[in-house]
Write a structure and sequence with these properties.
The complex is a heterodimer of chains A (419) and B (288). With 419 residues, chain A is an alpha/beta fold. Chain A is 41% helix and 17% strand. Chain B has 288 residues and is mainly alpha-helical. Chain B has eleven helices and two strands; from the N terminus they run ααααββααααααα. Chain B has helices spanning 2-31, 39-57, 61-88, 95-116, 141-163, 165-175, 177-182, 187-212, 220-234, 239-259, 265-279, and strands at residues 131-134, 137-140. The chains are: A alpha/beta (419), B mainly alpha (288).
């Protein structure tokens, strides 16, 4: 009896000790006040596909950083709200984040249209603003604490399409005429404006230059109108549904341009790549990361493995090559700045971010004075040997050959487009 | 010349698809006077069902649209019952009913997002991506198949409404409910059937939409204005009028895209709507 009672007491004591030990061990992380990072994100609406994928990547970063003890010894928490891809919802979200939720740091939602409305609020509070895929947002605001992770370069509007036109200039016989067509929306109009400037600088004659409404269903009349002008190059700036429509219409009409593509959003997404299949072959389009050997940055494969596991069953891009590595990287930038300055002082963080070259899963990132990448790395990739109905083929190299910039080149162009 | 002919042909193909999207709305909004703002959201549900069975079992999207139509009919009939009990019976259908269908639309979108996510969905079929070339006229099967199916469905609905007792009762219920009751028909049951029929058409329209282009949960919003405009232009409830209006909008959009610039297409199409209503307020085939 005695030994049984002793055993029970010992067990209780051991349990209490274990509990106390557990509390002590985890005290540095869990006792500290959480460090809150606030943002709005497009989780519903037209940009939700990218927004949800970005959130998965950001949550992977949060798990990674908390595993290392958090930031400044504090566990990282996210406070975020769905902006439903509606720019009008963004200002009240950031107002609430700053005045009610009292977040310590803010980062942006995804996309130009969602970033721009947050700028006046963030600027009023003089906050560092890492942003995710905004095209030339800071051209108007000229805010010196804006840091944009998309590798569009110091002059985003023109750098976006520079590669397309530089590649065209290298071809023989040299193309002479170009058609520019874009969706009537913020990003696409900016991309088309840059393409227009690049085309004129390169001496191409613009024979077609029109926009289409985002509600367009059938693109064959547009492609036929372009084909009637017989352009050598066709530069398209469009969002995913339009990009699919333009590619299908171009193949159905039998577009005879020598180069076709440029600024089509959506051709980077695995589901669309699988559906379009061989219709993609020879299209030259922008991209930011593809699984070519020249872009094998430290940590990117490990990150993508985590992302692809986390993305299963969530109805987002299963491969995650386009946006997720950058959504992880813009938080890596913030992480390094906070750790290096040991501070949340926005001035110190901004100064550090301006002078530092950051090592991230998307390679080295150095910001220029306007908060864009100091050097452009907008890739021009060409779809090659794409087979029908096979998503797995896009997971490895050989299907999206990097043609531009030369530093990251993994193959030569097939020219003309419609062989 | 070839650009001109191709613009007309593309417009007709597109217009037939618009008719498929709008035919159900011509019944609910045009004939039953129910502002079903959620109609395009049901079209998106049709697209998702086509996608699910196409991607998992390899079924043809059109076949899925037709097979799923009876289920859509039942859902439509149930929704009308709820709408009738909550609003129509108490005479609150105007504003509260509109809010109800807004709610239905948002619920559909959110459920699709929660269950299937927000990625773009597409279907594959052996004939998609192929063309029929008749001289200089190109007919992409991606648009020809929706044209044929949409035409057949619209014609079937029109024949049903104009040749059968139930169809004529549907036409009558909006005009003189009391007279219909005197003829021995139950107006509520007739409207329930009509609403079910209207929602059944969205199953087929959805399968056609996803053949034309990629679909995501909120895409239905793009078609709200267009579908209502087509029904109003056609004359609020006239199926032949709705078809003519859909073809007109399709051809105008295609023609303007080809010759003036695609950004003008909605302005010209809706301008045509305004001019028509100014000259003929009851629409093309509406009763004055």
């Amino acid at each position: 009896m005695v030994s049984r009672r002793l055993f029970a007491r010992a067990a209780v004591a051991a349990g209490a000790l274990a509990f106390a030990a557990g509390t002590l061990v985890s005290a540095p992380v869990y006792a500290a006040k959480p460090l809150k990072i606030g943002f709005s994100m497009a989780l519903t609406g037209g940009l939700a596909g990218a927004g949800k994928a970005a959130l998965i990547a950001m949550e992977i970063w949060r798990a990674d950083v908390n595993k290392k003890g958090g930031l400044l010894g504090r566990p990282v928490e996210f406070v975020y709200y769905d902006d439903a891809t509606q720019p009008a919802k963004v200002p009240p979200i950031y107002t609430k984040l700053l005045n009610v939720d009292k977040v310590d740091l803010v980062v942006s939602s995804y996309g130009t249209n969602e970033i721009a409305p947050a700028m006046p609020i963030v600027m009023r509070k003089k906050l560092v603003f890492p942003s995710l895929f905004g095209l030339a947002v800071n051209d108007e605001f000229k805010y010196n604490r804006y840091f944009q992770i998309m590798p569009a370069g110091p002059e985003p509007k023109t750098d976006w399409s520079k590669g397309f036109f530089e590649l065209a200039l290298e071809q023989n016989p040299k193309p002479k005429t170009v058609a520019i067509v874009s969706a009537d929306a913020e990003f696409a109009l900016n991309a088309a404006a840059g393409a227009r400037k690049n085309a004129k600088a390169a001496g191409f004659i613009v024979v077609y230059d029109k926009t289409f409404p985002p509600s367009t269903t059938d693109f064959s009349p547009i492609v036929r109108a372009i084909e009637a002008e017989k352009p050598d190059l066709v530069y398209v700036a469009s969002y995913p549904p339009h990009s699919v429509g333009m590619v299908k219409a171009a193949r159905e009409v039998g577009l005879k341009a020598k180069m076709f593509g440029g600024g089509m959003v959506g051709l980077q997404f695995a589901a669309i790549q699988k559906n379009l299949g061989p219709q993609l072959n020879n299209i030259v389009n922008y991209d930011f990361w593809v699984p070519e050997p020249t872009l094998n940055f430290p940590g990117v494969k490990e990150f993508l493995a985590k992302y692809q596991e986390a993305a299963k069953g969530k109805g987002v891009d299963p491969l995650g090559h386009y946006l997720p590595p950058y959504a992880y990287a813009y938080l890596q930038v913030l992480e390094e700045a906070v750790n290096a300055t040991k501070s949340l002082d926005q001035g110190k963080l901004a100064a550090y971010m301006h002078k530092t070259t950051f090592k991230t899963v998307v390679g080295n990132v150095k910001f220029g004075s306007n908060g864009e990448w100091a050097t452009s790395r907008v890739l021009m990739v060409q779809f090659r040997d794409v087979k029908p109905n096979d998503m797995a083929q896009f997971a490895g190299p050989g299907k999206r050959i990097v043609l531009y910039p030369k530093a990251w080149k993994s193959g030569d162009i097939v020219y003309p487009f419609n062989q | 010349m070839d650009l001109f002919v191709n613009a007309i042909v593309a417009g007709i193909l597109l217009g037939a698809f618009y008719a498929a999207v709008s035919v159900g709305l011509a019944i609910t909004f045009g004939q039953l006077d129910i502002v079903n703002i959620a109609h395009p959201a049901f079209v998106i549900v049709g697209s998702y069902i086509a996608w699910i069975l196409n991607s998992r079992l390899g079924w043809d999207p059109v076949l899925v649209g037709i097979l799923a139509a009876p289920a859509f009919f039942l859902v439509g009939a149930l929704i009308y019952r709820i709408y009738y009990a909550a609003f129509e019976r108490t005479g609150q259908e105007s504003l509260s009913g509109l809010a109800f269908f807004f709610g239905v639309m948002f619920i559909i979108e959110v459920v699709l997002i929660l269950v299937y996510g927000v990625d773009y969905r597409l279907v594959s079929a052996s004939y998609l991506g192929k063309n029929i070339d008749l001289g200089f006229v190109g007919l992409p099967l991606r648009l020809v198949v929706p044209f044929v199916v949409a035409s057949a469905m619209t014609a079937a609905v029109w024949l049903f409404l104009s040749r059968t007792f139930t169809g004529r009762a549907i036409l009558a219920v909006a005009q003189d409910r009391l007279a219909l009751q005197l003829m021995g028909a139950d107006p509520v049951r007739i409207k329930q059937f009509a609403f079910g029929l209207a929602i059944a058409t969205t199953s087929v329209a959805g399968s056609l939409l996803i053949m034309i282009g990629p679909v995501e949960p909120s895409l239905g919003r793009v078609y709200i204005g267009r579908a209502f405009a087509i029904v109003v232009l056609g004359g609020m409830g006239s199926i032949p009028g709705m078809v003519i209006a859909a073809l007109l909008i399709g051809v105008v959009e295609s023609f303007v895209s080809s010759f003036a610039g695609p950004s003008w297409a909605p302005a010209v199409a809706f301008g045509a709507l305004l001019i028509t209503l100014a000259v003929r307020p009851s629409g093309l085939f509406g009763r004055a």
